[in-house]
Specification:
Layout (H helix, E strand, L loop, with lengths): L1 H17 L12 H14 L41 E2 H18 L5 H21 L5 E6 L2 H5 L14 E5 L5 H18 L4 H20 L8 H7 L10 H15 L2 H9 L19 H15 L5 H13 L10 E2 L5 E2 L6 H20 L4 E3 L2 E3 L1 H16 L23 H4 L16 H4 L30 H4 L3 H16 L5
Antiparallel strand pairs: 1-2, 2-3, 4-5, 6-7
């Protein structure tokens, strides 16, 4: 009898391990439902006055005095993750990726979700416009992260210092300002069909902010007056040069201006366009930059930009397991893995780039050459689909890493608002240290942060549903943003195999 039990367990384990490797012809996954939830998540991250149509109704108003210490209205925007700080560097990147999702895949979205995606973008761009409203100044963060991280309290209750971190010219802020310029330029393209007036405001502001970034070169975290507030959380680890090229590339896309074309041509080497080309995230824009610029080469035969396309090709080839240049690691269950915390940020950004590049190649009737292997757009999409399906539940644990999607998902995510009783159910203040009892609880979070994608499993596909393991259990806006575009594609094309 005992041997039979052991045999049954071995068979079950084998099936779980084989699940990700089975080809999925016509997935049972509901990409449209996941798309809806991935956008809804952003409502749970809102700071400021919440509107009447707020759907994540366990949240309340918060951060209503943000900016008062500098006589500026800095209400609004997003909390980046499970804390109550507004970090502009990742927020701007989130905005760029949400906008890019709409630009590339908005036509794949149901009209209601396209509207919701634009609302999510505008919640951030309205705030970003406030942060650059004064000449030669950029507000780069609101909230003292050290004090904030020493508390476990709802955003509606927070009583920690809402310190405003500011950079004035000629002090450097090329990274945050460059990313903000990119976000505003990309958002201008997203809004152009439905709100051309707002799009024009975004674009006009973007050009001014990019000039600030280019004139005052350097990393914002090198400013000693703000360094202790932005590091080590969203310190610039990879240099500011990529954000200058990234901002210029988005302004080129939005304006078709020859001045921005000249900028990305002439500054390619001096700003290190050939460095670290296999990374893409809030701190390193290289792979995304190369894919973005490649469109001009593929669509318009802009051969002066060929080096960017060559870098994009090289990056894509690293993702092909059969390629001689393959170097991306995959977990046993098939998940893209890169060292460091919050691994799903890599899986979602890379998936997005795979799908965008596949579209660019297909529209120009081209394929990708990886040494002796020819890679079609459909092959790139298959790799992307494998990542999406893994995140939504086709993985060794059978768990969806999107909260609220399917019947099995993380219940104890590292997120203050989700883990503490809602202000609607518990209107009394829960002070800084009083939240510890909820943090240490083994019970599921009382508020479901629908659509949140957690940091996720690592190289061994292991995931413990534990609030304390923030690298795995904390959601972030920049994990979700590129996934919106990926889900939009597969919602319209669910059966590619």
């Amino acid at each position: 009898m005992k041997n039979n039990i052991i045999s049954s367990k071995l068979i079950l384990l084998l099936l779980l391990l084989l699940l990700p490797l089975m080809s999925c012809h016509g997935s049972y996954l509901d990409y449209t439902d996941a798309l809806t939830k991935s956008i809804l998540f952003f409502e749970g991250q809102r700071s400021g006055y919440l509107p009447q149509d707020q759907r994540m109704n366990w949240r309340g108003n918060s951060g209503l005095g943000d900016g008062w210490t500098v006589n500026t209205d800095l209400t609004g925007g997003y909390y980046d993750a499970g804390d109550n700080v507004k970090f502009n560097f990742p927020m701007a990147f989130t905005t760029t990726l949400l906008s890019w999702s709409v630009i590339e895949f908005g036509e794949n979205m149901p009209p209601s979700e396209l509207r919701n995606a634009l609302v999510a973008i505008r919640w951030s761009t309205d705030y970003l416009l406030k942060t650059v409203s004064q000449p030669n100044r950029i507000f780069v963060q609101v909230g003292d992260p050290v004090q904030d991280h020493n508390c476990w309290e709802r955003p509606e209750d927070m009583d920690t210092a809402r310190t405003v971190y500011t950079v004035d010219a000629p002090n450097p802020a090329s990274d945050v300002a460059g990313e903000t310029a990119a976000a505003l330029a990309a958002a201008s393209l997203a809004f152009r069909p439905s709100d051309p007036g707002y799009a024009e405001t975004l674009l006009r502001t973007s050009t001014r902010v990019f000039d600030f970034a280019d004139r005052n070169r350097g990393a914002y975290s090198d400013n000693l007056n703000i360094r202790d507030g932005v590091c080590p959380y969203y310190c610039d680890f990879d240099g500011y040069q990529d954000e200058l090229l990234w901002g210029a590339a988005w302004l080129r896309r939005a304006t078709q201006g020859d001045n921005y074309l000249s900028y990305i041509q002439e500054n390619r080497q001096t700003l290190g366009a050939d460095d670290n080309i296999n990374e893409f995230g809030w701190d390193n824009k290289h792979a995304g930059l190369n894919v973005l610029i490649s469109k001009e080469v593929l669509d318009g035969s802009m051969y002066s930009l060929q080096s960017y396309k060559s870098s994009a090709d090289s990056f894509m080839c690293t993702l092909i397991p059969e390629s001689s240049s393959s170097h991306i690691e995959y977990s046993p269950g098939g998940l893209i893995y890169k060292p460091g915390g919050s691994n799903l940020q890599h899986a979602t950004t890379i998936t997005f780039l795979l799908l965008v590049y596949a579209n660019y190649l297909e529209k120009s009737s081209q394929i990708l050459n990886c040494g002796t292997i020819s890679v079609s757009p459909s092959m790139l999409r298959k790799i992307g689909k494998r990542q999406v399906d893994y995140i939504l539940g086709e993985n060794p644990k059978g768990m969806s890493y999107m909260v609220g999607y399917s019947n099995y998902y993380p219940q104890k995510i590292h997120h203050r608002g989700s883990s503490l009783p809602s202000i609607k159910d518990h209107p009394q203040v829960i002070a800084c240290k009083e939240g510890s009892v909820y943090f240490n609880s083994t019970q599921p979070n009382p508020n479901v942060l629908v659509g949140a994608i957690v940091g996720g499993p690592g190289e061994d596909d292991a995931y413990d549903d534990n609030r304390d393991e923030f690298r795995k259990s904390e959601p972030t806006t920049y994990i979700n943003a590129p996934f919106v575009g990926a889900l939009a594609y597969f919602a319209a094309n669910p059966n590619i195999s």
